[in-house]
Amino acid sequence: MLLRLALPRVLGAAKRPSTLRQTRPLATRVPPDAVRNLGIIAHIDAGKTTTTERMLHYAGLTRSIGDVDDGDTVMDYLPMERERGITIQSAATTFGWRSHQLHLIDTPGHIDFTVEVERALRVLDGAVVILDAVAGVQAQTLKVWRQAEKNALPRVVFVNKMDREGADWRACVDELSRLTTPLVLMLPGPSLEQWYDVVTMELIVFDPQDKTGATLRRSKVEPPTAELSEARVQLVEALAALDAQIVDVFLSAGDHLKVPAGELRAAIRRATLTARACPVLLGAAFRNIGVQPLLDAVVDYLPAPGVPPAPLDPRKLVAFAFKVTVDPQRGPMVFVRVYAGTLDARMALVNQRTQLRERATKLLQMYGDAVEEIAQIAQGHIGVIVGLKATRTGDTLCEPKVKAQLHGIDVPPPVFVCAVEADAPQDERPLAQALSSLVLEDPSIVVEHNEETGQMLLRGMGELHLEVVQDRLRRMKVNASFGKVRVAYREMAGRKASVSHTYAREIAGRMHKAAMAITVEPAQDNTVEVELGDAFEGAEQPSEVHRAIVEGIEGAMSRGTLLGFPVARTRVTVTNVEHFNELSTLPAFRACAAQTLHHTLASADSVLLEPLALTTVECPGACVGPVLGDLSMRRARIVSIDHGEEAHVVAEVPLGSMLGYSSELRSLTAGAATFSMEVVGFGPVPALQQKRIIQESRGY
Ligand SMILES: Nc1nc2c(ncn2[C@@H]2O[C@H](COP(=O)(O)OP(=O)(O)OP(=O)(O)O)[C@@H](O)[C@H]2O)c(=O)[nH]1
């Protein structure tokens, strides 16, 4: 039910999370092959948080089971997350299962938080993909699946919500077979509490008397049912197509049913590690069914961290900061994965982006929102550093004298914007401080100060993203007001235009002068070309002059002349640069380039470009008519329509016309539809529309 997201779920005050029973589940120093760094990824509302809460409970971390519907979960611990029942920030937690140490990252399913998912995927070795047994593989599942694939992450699939009417695990497996080789390891039994284990050929019974589902019993199925035998045959056959060793085992066993469970597990593990096959488990987390077999599968089939990637020296510390949260008491808490060496408390670290030396004051292990201080974070593990002041998400940290740059995080350009203003002069400083800690935490937020209007602009990935930022600022007790959330357009030269301009200005008793001509024209991408000409032959600093002009142009291109949005798809050529001997300083060239470009763009009939979102709507077949009618009013270009009982509509729609879409779609389909959006590019705004946007924005 994606639509629920647009409207805050009204609950009472957020409760405390379920109490922690076991604060020291395992020492940090378990052998590396007993560590699993895993994420849970899925379409929104598939049940990630519900499943995670059960995992923590069965692992002994919580006394009672948290419930997203009651707002008392451990993993969703921001007040807004508890209120809305959605996961916003990836929360990392550590727990033990069968003598293994699991570092688990819960990732948000909403499209606005794709960067959060991306940053989590980078530090994981494997993932659990949760499907809703009724909805199957959904649009956002596909997106996160592809993200996982890009990172070659081995995956285990959990088909959740098997208790719902219309649950169809076979349809889920069919859909999965378009993406991978599904290895079905469980089958439904005679009742919701009874399941068949295809690997051990056992019946698993979740004791109906135990309301937490913690008690389960296993018994051999003798003789196996026809369905179980068939599933066993299919499992062995699927593995045989991928793994030569299991063929040998099968040939000596002589029968699919006689292949020993241990050999099967080893083959499933080998196949899963290649990321070409996925074990599939079934359950209903909300009913406390199926979570322990899922945890077993994590331990049995997902990879251990492995050796440090080349060319890292395994003895020298290299760590990657995949998340920063600013805690009011502790200050910035930097979540790291250690790729090589061992991180000790009080170790000096050099941030490879800033080259600044920082010192860790404490190391912590997180259990939901509870913490334990630890002395070390060993290679392959995930933990938290306290004491770093200037480390951002995506930074690499090394011990002094070691140089290494781990993969950064690609942040797509923010496409939504809103103005933010301190309520009174004394609120300006707290606002600036709060914004700078939010930027440390979330690299997909951009804060911009417009010197001409004095306005501060917040740019983000989506409506919900900016609402979350606003909500967090309010909770940080910052007194500020926010403008309407708008789409962040781009501006492009509408036609070829040239302007010559002379800059001359006296500053502190000294004259600065330069002159040049600039031509702009529409293009596929932004390019800047500077021809310095004969006047600069033999001059002392042609490369510095060149750089100053490019800097001036790049600065001016960040603010177009129509509404101040960044300039895109425009070719800029600088010619006839004039030199006035000692008057032509580098600042004069920089300022002249910026002013000339500004005048040129102003005479080039600039046009607005709007972000285009590829939008996928899934709805009951009967709702397709109204959904299409509404999309066409939003200037959508329909890409495909997949009719059926459950219809699938893909359309390219201007993002600006999708503001508030979730509540509209909800009323059109009585809450039966879900949708996802992804910005795929920019396209010109029709002339009439442009006039209206400019009028609304400028007020004239
Ligand atoms: N019937 C049924 N409902 C479930 C099951 N698991 C979860 N739910 C419900 O589905 C809804 C979404 O569950 P969450 O655990 O919040 O889903 P999520 O994937 O974490 O959602 P986001 O964090 O917002 O992406 C809640 O109302 C749950 O109670 C299940 O096994 N069966």
UniProtKB/TrEMBL annotation:
InterPro entries documented for this protein: EF-G-like_DII, EFG_II, EFG_III, EFG_III/V, EFG_V, EFG_V-like, G_TR_CS, P-loop_NTPase
Limits of the Tr-type G domain: 33-306
Domain of life: Eukaryota
Entry keywords, A to Z: GTP-binding, Nucleotide-binding, Protein biosynthesis
Any matching Pfam family: EFG_IV
Transmembrane segments: none
Function: Catalyzes the GTP-dependent ribosomal translocation step during translation elongation. During this step, the ribosome changes from the pre-translocational (PRE) to the post-translocational (POST) state as the newly formed A-site-bound peptidyl-tRNA and P-site-bound deacylated tRNA move to the P and E sites, respectively. Catalyzes the coordinated movement of the two tRNA molecules, the mRNA and conformational changes in the ribosome.
Name assigned to this protein: Elongation factor 2
